[in-house]
Each structure stands twice: as C-alpha cells, then as structure tokens.
Amino acid sequence: MRETAHAEAAAAGQTAAVGHVVPLRVLVAVWGTLLALTGLTVAAAGVDLGSYNLGVAMLIATAKATLVLLFFMHLRYDRPILAIVFVTALLFVALFVSIALLDSNAYAHQLIPGYGPALPK
Amino acid sequence: MAAGTTGEGTVAGARTHRVAHHFDNAEQQFESGKLGMWIFLATEILLFGGLFCAYAVYRSNHPEVFIYAHRFLDKTLGAINTAVLICSSFTMALAVRAAQLGRRRQLVGLLGATVALAACFLGIKGLEYEKKWKEGLLWGAHFHAKLAPAPPALPQTLPPVPAAAGEERSLIPPAAIGPAGLARPGQPAVAEGPEGPPHDVQVFFAVYFLMTGLHGVHVIIGMALLSWMMVRAGRGEFSPGYLTPVDLTGLYWHLVDLIWIFLFPLLYLIR
Amino acid sequence: MTGIESATGGFGSGGNALGRDNYLNHERGIKSWLLTRDHKRIGVMYLVVILSSFFLGGIFAELIRTKLLTPGNSALMKADTYNQMFTLHGAIMIFLFVIPGIPASLGNFVLPLMLGAKDVAFPRLNLASFYLWVGGATLALVSMVTGAVDTGWTFYTPYSTTTNTNVILMVAGVFVLGFSSIFTGLNFVVTIHKLRPAGMTWFRMPLFLWGIYGTAIIQIMATPVLGITLLLLIAERALGIGIFDPALGGDPVLFQHFFWFYSHPAVYIMILPAMGVISELVSVFSRKHIFGYTFIAMSSIAIAVLSFLVWGHHMFVAGQSTLSSMIFSFLTFMVAIPSAVKVFNWLATMYKGSIWLATPMLYVLSFLFLFGIGGLTGLFLGALAVDVHLHDTYFVVAHFHYVMFGGTVIAFLGGLHYWWPKMFGRMYSEFWGRIGALLVFVGFNTTFFTQFVMGSHGAPRRSYHYQPQFEAYHRLSTIGAYILGVGFVVIAVYLIHSLLRGRPAPANPWGGATLEWQASSPPPHDNFASTPAVGDPYDVEAWTWDGAVGGFVRRTPAEQPAGS
Ligand code: HEM
Ligand SMILES: [Cu+2]
C-alpha cells in the first residue's frame, strides 16, 4: 500500500510530503461507500427486524466509522500506537456503558415512571 | 519506537526551520503532534461516552419513551445532514491531500467547502431545533407539548418534611422543589396504557438536545478552526513538509463526523 | 567519563550553578516567568500555586477541627458554614492540590530532566495547562465568596441541583481544572513516547516516570467523564435538563456512576505519582539498587487499568444493585494486589541496604507505614457487609486521609525535599527537616488514627453536631491537627530560609543515579550542557561521597570496591 501511494505522490511531482498521501480514488470510493451506507441504514430502519434493528443500525454505523478512521483519518497508514489509543478509549466507554447499564437495569423497577413533581402541568 | 526512527513513506526533505528546539527533526515533531491529537480525540470519545451511557441507560429502561418520541424527529432532515457531514469529511480529506501535495489554492478552496458544508449542517439543525421549540418538545422542565390523552394521574404530593429542631435547621433558604422520586413501598410502578403517550417523554428530548447540542458545539469549534486554517493556508504557511495544523484540524473534523454517524441512527432511526 | 565530570555535568566544582547561567536567571523579569515555556519554570510556578492551595485548604481544615472541639453549637461557625467549610476543604484539597500536585509541579520539573530531554513535547500546551489551572482555581475561589457550595466535594444530586449555593460556578471551575489535568497528562504521554533520547529505552526509565505515565493514562481516560458529568450538572441547574433529577424522570444513582467512574481512578491519579516518588527515594537512601524494577513498573500500569474497574465500591449503600456490588467488591480486593507488589519491592530494596535517615527517607518510612494502614483499611471498606456499617462514618474519613495525606502528601513532601536542591540550588537545614517530618508524622497519626476508632463506633462524617460520647476522640483529633499545623509552619519556615540563605547545593547531594543529578543545581535553561550518558537509573552504588566536591561523584570502574 505504501509503495503505490508513494508512487502516486511521486507522480504528482512531490516526494517530500509529511505523512502518507492517500490515493484519490481511494478517497472517492470511501466517500461513495459512506453515502451508500447512509442510504442503507435509512432503508433498514424501515424494515421490521424486531430486536435486530438496533444491531443492524449499529453494525452499519460501525462500518462507516471504520472507513472514516482507516482512510480519511489515515489510521490504515499510520503507526499502530494511534489506533491503540483510539481503541483503548472505545474500550473504556464500553466498560462504563456496560456496567452502568447492568446496574441500572437491576434497580430500574424501583423507579416510578411518570413521577415527575417538577414537570409543568 | 525510539525517537528518531524514520518510518518509510514519511518526511524526507521537510522544511527544517519549523522544528522546535526540543525536537530532533520534523518527522519527530509531526509524529508527536499526531499522537497528541489522537490522545485528545480519545478524551473527546470519553466525553461523548458519558452521553452515550446516559442514552443507553434511559433507552434500555424506558424503551417505550424512545420509540414513541423519536417519531417527532425529522428522519429526512437527519439523513440529509448525515450526507452533508460525510461530504464535508470528504472535502476535508481532500484538503489534507492538497496540502501534502503542495497545492495551495486547492487547499484553500477545499477548506472553504468544508466550512460551507458545516454551516449547511448547522442551518438544517437550526430548522429542526426551531420546530421542536415551537412545538414545546423540549427537555425536562421545559417540555410542554400537548400529547393527547394524558397519562393516569399519579400521586403528586410529597411526604411532609419533618421540621428540624432549633439551630440545626439550615439557614440557606430551601429550594423551590425538594429532591423526590424514588419508589416508596406500596406504590406499584404504573405501566403505560396502550392508548396514551408513555410517561417521561421529556427524558428523550433531554437526551436528544444534550447529544446534538454538544455535537453542535463541536461543529462550531470545528468551523472556527477550519476558517483559521483557511487564512493560514491563504498566507502560504503550509507546505508538503509542514502541514501539522491542517492535518490535526482534519482529524478533529473527522471525529465530529464520526460521532454524528452514530447519533443519526441512535436518535432518528429507532424502531 | 571521569568521576568529577559526570558528577557535575562539566560545571566545575560542586556543580552548583547559582552564580552562573541557570534556568532561574537565564531571563529576568516577571514577564519572562509568566510567559515562559520552560518546563522547569512552569513546574516552579505550579509549585507555588499548589502549595498556596494546600495552605488555604489547611486553614479550612484547622477551622473545622476547631469547631469539633465541642459537640454542640459553636460560636466559631454556624452549621451551614460548617457544611460549606468541609466542602471547600475537600474540593480545594482534591481538585486544586492533590490531583495536580505531584505531576504538575515535581513531574513537570523532573520529567524531561530524568528523560534526558530538553523540554516536554508541547511547551506551549504546558503553559496553557497552567493557566487553565489558574482559571479554574479563580472560578472556584469566586464561587467561594458568592455563595460557597455546601454539597460536599462529591456534588451528589439531587442535593446539588436544589441547594441555593453557587454550584454552577464551582462546578465550572472544576471542569476547567479537569482540562488542565488532561493536557498535562497528554503532554507527558507524548513526551515519554516521542522524546526519549537514544539509549533511554522503556525499561531504563526511572520508576517515577512509569508512575507519571500510569497517572497520565488515568488523567486522559477518566477526566473527560468528569467533564461531561459536570456539564450535565450545570445543564441540570441552569436549564433543568432532568437527566439526574428524579422529579423530572431522571436517575440520581446514575450521577454517582458518572462521578465515581472518574473519581475512583482519580484517587490513583493522586497516589501513582506518589508511589513513583517513593520508588526513587527508597533506592537512593538505601544506597542500593531498586529491587524488582519490572514489577514496580508494570504494577503502575496494572493499577492504572484496574482502577477503572472498582468505582462501584462507593455506591454499596446508594441503591446500587446487589449484583454490581458483589462484582465491585471482588474487584476492589484485586486492586490491592499491585499496590502490595510495590510495597514488598520497596521493603526488599531496603533489606540489607545502608539506610540513610535523611529527611526524604523519613518521609519514605512514614509513607510505607501510613499507606500500609490506608490501603488495608480500604480492604475493610471494600468488604460489602463491613462497609454497610462503616460507610459515611469517620472510618472512611480516616481511610482516605491515610491514603491521600499519609500517602500522597507525605510522598510529595519527600519528593520536594529530595529535589529541592536541584530546583533551587540550595540545601535546607537537615536538622529542622527531620523535626518537621517528625511533627507531621506524630500530628497526622494523632489526628486520624483517632478517627478510625471513632468511626468504627459509628460516628457519622460531615456532621456539625455529634454525640457527647465522641467528644474525647474529637478533642484528641483536633490536638493532632494543631501539631500537624505546627509541623507545616516549621517546614515552611526552613524552606523559605533555605531559598534565601541555604548552603549552595552540589549537583548530586544524595547520590541519585537518574539523569537529573547530572545537570548542575539549578539546571541550565536547556537542561544539560552536553547530552547525558544514559545508564542504569538505579546504579546508586556507583556514586560515592566526595568531600572535595561536596557532593556525590561517580566512581570510575577502577575504584569500585570488590563485592560492594
Ligand atoms: C488498596 C487500595 C484501596 C482500597 C481497597 C480502597 C477502598 C475504598 C472504599 C471501599 C471506599 C468507600 C468507603 C465508603 O464510602 O463507604 C473508599 C473511599 C475513599 N477512598 Fe479508598 N481505597 C483504596 C485506596 C485509596 C487511595 C490510594 C486513595 C487516594 C489517594 C483513596 C481515597 C479514597 C477517598 C477520597 C474515599 C472517600 C470518598 C468519599 O466518599 O468522599 N483510596 N476507598
Ligand atoms: Cu474508590
């Protein structure tokens, strides 16, 4: 991958660029795919898949995010440490969300729905 | 990983006069800037993570509220906005490429396009907010939309607060509304009737405004940064050997896009 | 390299640079300080403001303790004032003093020096962090005079959303302070990753840097969650957003999850740098190579990660589900393991060393004793059934003071005395140093050990009135607090005296083998006259006292006695 991109940069008459130059057609392809996936997720939301709707929507969103990260944000070409930093952050979010969810689900039945004395009448 | 190893495909003849005294070379400086930026992005992820957590907790505990209330959001506008942000990410990626290839005019143009798309996003968002505002579909205490049939009445009285004796009473004037709300024994949780709207619809709008609001603030900051980059690019401050500010602004902008990619299905496309 | 040269960094006799160009006199004028990007100057500025906060928080503490001499109403302060007083004490001590404490002041000063670098990766960001601290502190101080908060430093909802004190301003201040902390951590991580000179491999880094690195991980990954928590609290008060307000359909227990997801890891932001300081000092003052380098280094990282898994132990009686309580209780016990790994390695370092009871070492010994008690009582609190009894009693107060004061503050003092000659080029009075350390140790135990006893008898914390049966304990505790106060006055006096009149310090007064001792005291603007030679950071036995130099010098291989 590095080689081809290098070649392209060289072809453009530049060899001294800092960082990796992503080939134009890769960027265009990613852009197109992102738009297509947006369409897909809207369409999928129109189909009743029961409890799978959320999963499908998240799967598509994750695919889109991955494309942005790898190509627009250059992770595909950068040092692994940057991806490690990012994934670590995601893991901590996952930890936080999952434990808070686990706990609040366990006591949720003790809350009174609609008990809102501060709501405007 | 030791400093000084030069990765392939990176700097060679970078301009050196921009290297600060404590760096060995431009590559070390560029890589440091990038690592710093990614760490900053990690903190942004965790900042939004808190809101995603609130979302998950309320959605999982009140699914009926989310299913009911999300219908008030405009799916079409949301989808258009998603596309707008994706396009702005694309122009941003092209802008970084233009900077790397030393095409100054292209760089300025692409940054301008990115700002324009961001403004477009905010405009559409503003339209949506205005509609919610008019209909009273707001958060917490400000929610006043008329949702036909009202939910069954609930006890609205609080148990009397026992009067404290003597000096122990607080001299700070009491608040208008005291803390209240956890279950008391003997009060069954009231289920939603099939005919009326569910309880606590305002919670969805609190989550909606918090998430899109914080995201919107990030868009505004992004626009400011992008405009500043445009000015600097116009002055010819960047070159293939020195484009760290453009690159880092790009990373930030892509993250703003990334977060929206998740907000869109989570808020607009609930089923 | 000959002994003298390496000992003095090529600066001639003794390596003292007070009369020559050094970072303190490199540029002159107040502006050259306020706009400096030199990590050493920023470290010194942090030291000044952080010690001032400590002083302010200390005044509040003495006032609180004075009130508690008697169980009933007091002419000194009303009950409301008392609530505001302990809140301000806690908030100042935690957010203004201990959290930035060691990393921002000592860390800023020595991190690049220890690494052999010229500065941190982002000097401008470093200065920005400092000013964010100043901005946050200003907001907090303004909130103090415009309706001081009475919620406790934990800002629990729903009380914090309903009290009529100035919560928004205080919380905004803490939010800004959080950013200061994040940027400091970010700067240090990038510096450690990218600015290590050739030869400085990960496992040649001094353990203090591992401690700072672990701290930075927590600062980066936890502080943003505090940020969003505080933003939500502001939104709650200013806009009535309702996320944490049960009266609007929100969930106040969720606030505690948010708060402790940051604040438990935050206690390791406080203690990890302290552990790093101890790792340096224990080897130098035992004149012996550190024992178990890799274990100490790795346990810092293990602590950083594990610290994220135990926040629910603050919520055992807050309505948290039994399942989560059980999980959190179990994990709380796990987190003691890496802490114990460190303690045992320090003890093994001291074993058969020639222990030198200089002032910094007295603080190390205090630390080991006090942190041992603090950590072990944490295990009592982590046990579910026991915590139901002990929660919100003085036992908890004693526990966290033993770890935060007995651990972090004591290590901070140890580090301050250790690096003082390097920072300012002057020695302090060793005699008064030892007296100060002794007073602090005695005063501390008198104050807080009493509280363990009182707490286990059920004395509730954060309470203006108390039952007459606790009066004796409270009296004793207050007397301890006064001894402590005297100890700090002694320390302040001889340190200030040393700044003005102290004996000029040699480059290496303690015989440390880390790189900062190869620079002159105080170091030059660019840290090192020539690139220092990176070696084993704990090869302290290679350094011996040289009366002619007035400091330690490195032995040439020929001089090394066999079997030392
Ligand atoms: C061996 C390690 C530790 C264990 C097992 C532990 C355990 C605990 C537990 C279970 C509590 C909750 C008590 C209650 O509220 O009922 C607690 C409170 C506390 N701990 Fe620790 N702890 C440890 C280390 C530390 C350290 C290193 C620090 C700070 C440097 C610290 C600071 C605190 C603070 C500030 C509180 C009280 C918070 C409040 O409610 O205001 N702890 N600890
Ligand atoms: Cu804790």
Task: Characterise this structure.
Chain A is mainly alpha-helical and 121 residues long. Chain A is built from four helices and no strands. In chain A, 67% of the residues lie in helices and 0% in strands. Chain B is 59% helix and 0% strand. Chain B has six helices and no strands. In chain C, a hairpin with a 4-residue loop joins β1 and β2. Chain C is globular. The two termini of chain C are 21 Å apart. Chains in contact: A-B, A-C, B-C. The A-C interface holds A 81, 88-89, 92, 95-96, 99-100, 102-104, 106-107, 110-111, 113-119 and C 193, 221, 225, 240, 242, 245-249, 251, 253-254, 257, 261, 308-309, 312, 319-324, 327. The complex binds protoporphyrin IX containing FE and copper (II) ion. Protoporphyrin IX containing FE binds at residues 154, 267, 270-271, 313-314, 332, 335-336, 339, 375, 378-379, 381-382, 387, 390-391, 396, 399-400, 403-404, 407-408 of chain C.
In CATH terms, the superfamily of the largest domain in chain C is Cytochrome c oxidase-like, subunit I domain
Largest β sheet strand count, sense and barrel closure of chain B: none
CATH class of the domain at 35-140 and 199-271 in chain B: Mainly Alpha
User: Which segments of chain C are poorly predicted (pLDDT under 50) over 5 or more consecutive residues?
Assistant: 1-13
CATH topology of the largest domain in chain C: Cytochrome C Oxidase, Chain A
Just give the CATH class of the largest domain in chain C.
Mainly Alpha
H and E string of chain C: HHHHHHHHHHHHHHHHEE
What hetero molecules are bound to the protein chains?
protoporphyrin IX containing FE, copper (II) ion
Give a short summary of the structure:
Chain A has 4 helices and no strands.
Map the helices and strands.
The complex is a heterotrimer of chains A (121), B (271) and C (564).
Chain A: H1 2-11, H2 24-45, H3 52-72, H4 80-107
Helix pairs in contact in A: 2-3
Chain B: H1 26-61, H2 63-69, H3 75-100, H4 104-135, H5 201-234, H6 244-268
Chain C: H1 3-8, H2 30-34, H3 39-67, H4 79-115, H5 123-145, H6 159-162, H7 167-194, H8 207-239, H9 252-285, H10 293-306, H11 322-350, H12 359-382, H13 384-390, H14 394-424, H15 430-456, H16 471-501, E1 543-546, E2 551-554
Antiparallel strand pairs in C: 1-2
The structure holds protoporphyrin IX containing FE (HEM) and copper (II) ion.
